[in-house]
Amino acid sequence: MGEIVDTSKGIHRGIEEGRDLLRFITCGSVDDGKSTLIGRLQYDTKTIFEDQLEHVEDVSRRRGNERTDLALLTDGLRAEREQGITIDVAYRYFSTPHRKFIMADAPGHIQYTRNMVTGASTANLAIILVDARKGMVEQSRRHAFIASLLGIPHLVFAVNKMDLVDYDEAVFDRIRAEFTNWAAKLQVRDVVFVPISALNGDNVVEKSAKMPWYRGTPLLYHLETVHIASDRNLIDVRFPVQWVIRPQSAEHPDYRGYAGTVAGGILKPGDDVVALPSGFTSKIARIETADGPLDEAFPPMAVVVHLADEIDVSRGDMLCRPNNQPIVGQDLDAMICWMVDRPLRARGRYALKHTTRWVRGMVTELQYRLDVNTLHRDEAAESLGLNDIGRVRLRTTSPIFYDAYARNRTTGSFILADEVTNETVAAGMLLSPGQ
Predict the structure, then answer these.
(1) Domain-embedded: residue 215
(2) 294 and 218 in one domain?
(3) d(Cα 150, Cα 398) in Å, to the nearest integer?
(4) What secondary structure does DSSP assign to 358-398, as a single string?
(5) What average pLDDT score do residues 107-112 get?
(6) Can you give the CATH number for the domain in which 369 is found?
(7) Is a pLDDT exceeding 80 seen at residue 52?
(8) pLDDT tens-digit profile of 332-386?
(9) Which of 5, 190, 245, 365 could cross-link to 257 by cystine, CB 3.0-4.6 Å?
(10) Are 83 and 196 contained in the same domain?
(11) DSSP letters along 65-102, please?
(12) Which stretches does DSSP call E strand in 290-326?
C-alpha cells in the first residue's frame, strides 16, 4: 500500500530527494483514457485523500455517470472538465514501497503538442495509450516520435479499453505488430506492450484474470522495476555554474562556492577540473549541500562545489574534466519544436537559454520541416508554425558549451525566447557538428 502524498512544496521536495524516482508521462490520442489511467493508479495505490475521492464521486453522480470518473482527479481546469479533455499538463505525485513517481498527463489534441513536449522533456519513461478499438492513429505515431526525439529511453504502449473488445488476444497482437513495425524507425531501445483496461483496473496494478493469455507483468510492476539508473550520463562531468556564493560575512570571510545542478558525470573531492570558457584548471576541494559535505555528487543533485584555487568562475560557466570537455561552438545545428502562433523564419533573432547561460542568437537557416506522421522532410519549407518540428542552424553571439542531446539531455537542450516579451517560443535539441 502506498503512502498518501499531496502536491505541497514540502512533499514535492521530499520526492525530488528520493533515492529512486521515476518521472513518466502518459500520452496518446484524445479519449484514449490517459487521465483515467492516472486516476486508476492513484486510486488503486491508495494515494488519494478521502475528500478528493468523495468530491470526484459527487461530481460523477451529478453528471449521471454509471461509475466514478477517475479522470476527474487529473482534469483540474474547468475547461477540461466541461469538455471532457485534457488541456494543460497535469502533474501528480505518488509512491509505492518500491519507488516514488512524478507522472504527467499530456494533452491528446494536436494543437497541444507543445504541452506534451514540455511534460516529456524530463521524463524517464513514456506511456503511450492506444484505444484497442482504433489501433494505431495519427496522434499515437506523433507522440511516439516526439518521445523518441526527446530522448525518452523507455516506451510503454498500453493498449487500453481491452474490455470493449472482449479482451481479445488477436486484437492486442495485431496492434503490437503494427506498433513494432513503426517503433523500428525510432531510436528507442526499450519498448514494452501491456493490454489494460484503465476503467476496470485490468493489468494496471494487479494482473487481470480476464486476460490469461498475457504473460507479462501489470503496468505498475513495470513502472516499479524498470531500470533507469544507467540512463544518466555518469561519464562526462558537466557542472554548469548557476550561482557564485560569496557571503562575505564575519562568520565566513573567505567563503567562495559555486552552486549548481550536476548535469553529467560524478564529481569527487580531489578531482581535476577545468572552468570554461576561461580554461583555468583547479581541483575540487570539497562538495557540500545544506545538510553538510558529500563524498561525491552525480546527476541531478544540486550542490555547492569549492575549488582549491581562486580562479575566475561566473554564472553560466561550466566545470568539466580537462581531458573530457564539451563541444564549444557558436554555429549550432538543432531540432526544435515551435511553440507560438507567430511563425519562425530564417534570420529571426532570439535569446537562447542553455543550462545556466543566456546568449543572443539568430536562426541562420531552416533546413527542413519534419512531418512526424510520415517522417518526411519538407526541405522547401520557409517557416515553422505552432507545434511544427524542424531542423535549423543557429549562430550565437558567444560560444556555448554543449553535448549532443543524444549524449546528454541536459547539456544538449535549450530554449529560444522572444527578446522583447521574454516569451518562450521554441524548445530545442542540439546535434553533433556534421550530424
Answers:
(1) yes
(2) no
(3) 26
(4) EEEEEEEEEEEEEETTTTEEETT--EE-TT-EEEEEEEEEE
(5) 57
(6) 2.40.30.10
(7) no
(8) 999 999 988 899 988 889 999 999 999 999 999 999 999 877 778 999 999 999 8
(9) 245
(10) yes
(11) -SS--GGGGT--SHHHHHHTS--S-EEEEEE-SS-EEE
(12) 292-294, 302-307, 318-320
User: What percent of the chain has pLDDT above 70?
Assistant: 82
What pLDDT score does 394 carry?
96
Domain end residue (candidates: 174, 201, 231): 231
Alpha-helix runs per DSSP H in 121-211:
138-149, 169-183
* Chain segment 192-237, per-residue pLDDT in tens: 999 999 888 899 999 999 999 999 999 999 999 999 888 888 999 9
One domain, residues 69 and 191: yes
Of the chain, the end-to-end C-alpha distance in Å amounts to 48
**Are 225 and 369 part of one and the same domain?**
no
- The grid coordinates of residue 376 equal 518526411
Assigned C-alpha cell, 357 = 547561460
Distance of CA 177 to the CA centre of its chain: 27
Going by pLDDT thresholds of 50, 70 and 90, the confidence category of residue 111 is: low
Q: How confident is the model at residue 133 (pLDDT cuts 50, 70, 90)?
A: very high
Q: Please report, for the domain that includes residue 100, its CATH number.
A: 3.40.50.300
Q: How many CB atoms lie within 10 A of CB 21?
A: 17
Calculate Rg over the CA atoms of the chain.
Answer: 23
Domain with 165 in it: 9-231
The pTM of the full predicted model, rounded to 2 decimals, is 0.81
Burial 64-98 (b: 16+ CB within 10 A, else e): eeeebbbbbbbbeeeebeeeebbbbbbbbbbbbee
- Answer whether 247's CB lies under 8 Å from 253's CB: no
Statement to judge: residues 182 and 51 lie in one domain:
yes
Backbone angles phi, psi at 266, to 5 degrees: -125, 125
